[in-house]
């Protein structure tokens, strides 16, 4: 098959996969679209079996890592970590909505960094909603804070976002080095978010509540916290000990779920469901589809546009272009498309790319601008969300956060 | 007289107290609370934004949000009723707050509500967008109360183009 035809086939399948994922159509799941598309591309010879195998071999550790992280988050939920965090926030904020927002920003950043953006969105945000509602303060600023921090605080660790995991293996950085380079950028972005959120929702946060009953003292799940602390320490020391971080994650997942499985307080079928097998197939399929496109001309096209230097203007351009691409095709495909090119520019270019694809989705609530427009066209949008509020908030935070994070990354790369 | 009292989480005590002080004894009173569907919408929109993840029912072990807000609203309305100290109908709605309030005010003679804006910035922003919308569109008279003490006259700035310098704003 000619390169041009193979590229066209891969792009059509990529578009169909995204359409399936974005439209949430019942008749075609995104896993079937991505997996079936990958098989079709191999069958018609758009990508050789060996190259498809290479793509799968590169992705397999990432997918295993992701499954372990999902299990860690589920174990932490079962042990009551998120309820405890809700109680800590309610008690610590002593009736003040401003103080609650500060707690939400801190807790959402910490949960995102350690347990990934999925945990913040799926497990923490409902708890934050419940906490704010029961405290009788308006939940709006606090859930917006969670939605934003889940993306923007996901810079810190390789485990904070699937995009980071995908790039982490390619970047050849150690876990500790990745975290060290991303620490200041994350701090800067969290500060930008907090300052903007406080001002943006000033009217919702203005009035401290005359506190009524003091919320109950939280019962911290000591076992879960100890496992999480040990897992984090294991991640940090993984390169010194010569262990791949994925094994640390697996050990954490076993420690948090093994006892519950043995005592039958956790259901094995439900556990399998928490690792989201369809999602894992989706990533593997997407990886093969994007690899086909990259091998047949997409990568050289991206190479013409994306700078690969480590000067500040180059890093800013990488972050900005990555944010734009994330808004065109969503951040997972964007990351897969950009990795092969960014890797040539070294760790600085890879991390600047991650800043773009992680922060960029905050421009809208839908993950990407294209998704939003598509859903609105299909009338599948979430009609209760006021688009104007989210877009204005995104316009205020995303450019400032991108520039802050990239400048701080550049500074960290100089030492 | 049919009166609607719109109560909001952070200002309901003042609203109920003012309503109790000003409404005639024979008024037919309804207490209204509106749960904000926007916040719930953001939670589910953020979940749907996760590309490729399953998008069925919320995960087990996570309470459905409408149930949480419905329970909180019932508790708030019950507390407001006992603090009002007279019989009143209770109405709990959910949706876009300002639109639900205006819809509930149909057929009423008076709506009682509290300012929801920034107390530190007297001017257009002392009314937040929901109260602004309600004041503009409610099909009846409105009693707009200060959730805290009413501001002193000294908070009014000097007229533009001369006069004495404005006094410093009262600190809170």
How is this structure best described in words?
The complex is a heterodimer of chains A (415) and B (172). Chain A has 415 residues and is an all-alpha fold. Helix content of chain A is 78%, strand content 0%. Chain A has helices at 3-23, 30-43, 49-78, 81-92, 97-115, 117-134, 140-152, 162-171, 175-200, 202-205, 222-241, 245-262, 268-274, 277-305, 312-329, 331-343, 346-359, 369-377, 387-414. In chain A, helix 1 (3-23) crosses helix 14 (277-305) and helix 17 (346-359) runs antiparallel to helix 19. The longest helix of chain A has 30 residues, at 49-78. The N and C termini of chain A lie far apart (48 Å). The mean pLDDT of chain A is 89. Chain B is an alpha/beta fold and 172 residues long. Chain B has a single domain, classed as Rossmann fold (3-Layer(aba) Sandwich). In chain B, strands 3-2-1-4-5 form a 5-stranded parallel β-sheet, sandwiched between helices. Chain B is globular. The relative contact order of chain B is 0.19. The mean pLDDT of chain B is 85. Classes of the chains: A mainly alpha (415), B alpha/beta (172). At the A-B interface, helix 2, helix 6, helix 7, helix 10 and helix 14 of A face helix 2 and helix 3 of B.
Q: How does the overall form of chain B come out from the CA principal axes?
A: globular
- Percent range for helical residues of chain B? 25-40%
Alpha carbon gyration radius of chain A: 21 Å
Number of helical elements of chain B: 5
CATH class of chain B, named Alpha Beta
Rg of Cα set of chain B? 20 Å
Structural class of chain A: mainly alpha
Mean pLDDT of chain A: 89
Instruction: Please name the fourth-level CATH homologous superfamily of chain B.
Output: HUPs
- Percent range of helical residues of chain A: over 70%
What's the helix-strand series of chain A? Answer: HHHHHHHHHHHHHHHHHHH
Strand content of chain A: under 5%
* Gap between N and C termini of chain B: 37 Å
Proper CATH architecture of chain B: 3-Layer(aba) Sandwich
Number of helices of chain A: 19
Query: Which spans of chain B have pLDDT < 50 for at least 5 consecutive residues?
Result: none
What fraction strand of chain B? Answer: 15-25%
Strand order of the largest sheet of chain B: 3-2-1-4-5
């Amino acid at each position: 098959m000619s390169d041009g035809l193979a590229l066209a086939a891969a792009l059509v399948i990529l578009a169909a996969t995204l359409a399936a994922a974005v439209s949430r159509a019942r008749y075609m799941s995104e896993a079937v679209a991505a997996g079936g598309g990958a098989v079709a591309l191999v069958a018609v010879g758009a990508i050789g079996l060996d190259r498809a195998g290479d793509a799968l071999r590169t992705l397999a550790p990432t997918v295993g890592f992701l499954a372990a992280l999902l299990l860690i988050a589920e174990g932490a939920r079962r042990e009551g970590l998120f309820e405890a965090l809700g109680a800590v926030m309610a008690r610590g904020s002593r009736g003040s909505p401003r103080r609650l927002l500060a707690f939400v920003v801190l807790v959402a950043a910490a949960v995102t960094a350690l347990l990934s953006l999925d945990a913040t969105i799926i497990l923490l945000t409902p708890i934050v909603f419940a906490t704010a509602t029961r405290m009788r303060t308006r939940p709006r600023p606090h859930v917006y804070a969670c939605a934003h921090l889940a993306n923007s605080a996901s810079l810190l660790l390789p485990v904070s976002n699937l995009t980071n995991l995908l790039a982490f293996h390619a970047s050849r950085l150690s876990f500790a080095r990745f975290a060290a380079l991303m620490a200041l950028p994350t701090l800067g972005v969290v500060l930008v978010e907090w300052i903007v959120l406080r001002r943006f929702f000033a009217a919702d946060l203005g009035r401290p509540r005359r506190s009524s009953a003091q919320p109950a003292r939280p019962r911290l799940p000591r076992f879960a916290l100890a496992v999480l602390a040990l897992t984090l320490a294991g991640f940090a020391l993984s390169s010194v000990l010569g262990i791949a971080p994925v094994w640390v994650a697996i050990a954490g997942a076993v420690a948090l779920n093994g006892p519950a499985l043995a005592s039958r307080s956790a259901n094995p079928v439900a556990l399998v469901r928490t690792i989201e097998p369809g999602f894992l197939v989706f990533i593997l399929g997407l990886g093969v589809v994007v690899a086909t496109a990259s091998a047949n001309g997409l990568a050289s096209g991206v190479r013409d546009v994306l700078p690969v230097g480590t000067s500040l203007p180059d890093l800013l351009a990488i972050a900005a272009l990555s944010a734009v691409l994330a808004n065109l095709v969503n951040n997972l495909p964007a990351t897969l498309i950009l990795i092969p090119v960014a890797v040539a520019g070294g760790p600085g270019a890879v991390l600047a790319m991650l800043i773009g694809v992680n922060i960029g989705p905050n421009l809208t609530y839908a993950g990407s601008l294209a998704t939003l427009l598509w859903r609105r066209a299909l009338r599948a949008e979430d009609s209760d969300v006021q688009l104007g509020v989210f877009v204005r908030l995104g316009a205020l935070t995303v450019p400032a956060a991108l520039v802050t994070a990239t400048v701080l990354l550049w500074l960290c790369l100089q030492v | 007289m049919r009166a609607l009292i719109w109560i909001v989480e952070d200002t309901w005590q003042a609203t109920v107290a003012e309503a109790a002080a000003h409404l005639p004894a024979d008024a037919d009173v309804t207490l209204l609370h509106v749960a904000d569907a926007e916040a719930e919408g953001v939670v589910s929109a953020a979940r749907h934004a996760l590309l490729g993840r399953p998008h069925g029912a919320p995960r087990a072990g996570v309470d459905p949000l409408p149930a949480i807000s419905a329970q909180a609203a019932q508790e708030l309305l019950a507390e407001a009723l006992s603090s009002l100290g007279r019989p009143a109908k209770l109405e709990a709605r959910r949706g876009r707050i300002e639109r639900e309030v205006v819809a509930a005010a149909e057929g009423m003679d008076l709506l009682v509500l509290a300012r929801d804006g920034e107390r530190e910035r007297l001017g257009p922003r002392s009314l937040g967008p929901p109260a602004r919308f309600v004041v503009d569109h409610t099909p009846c008279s409105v009693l707009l109360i200060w959730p805290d003490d009413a501001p002193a006259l000294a908070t009014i700035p000097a007229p533009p183009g001369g006069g004495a310098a404005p006094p410093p704003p009262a600190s809170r």
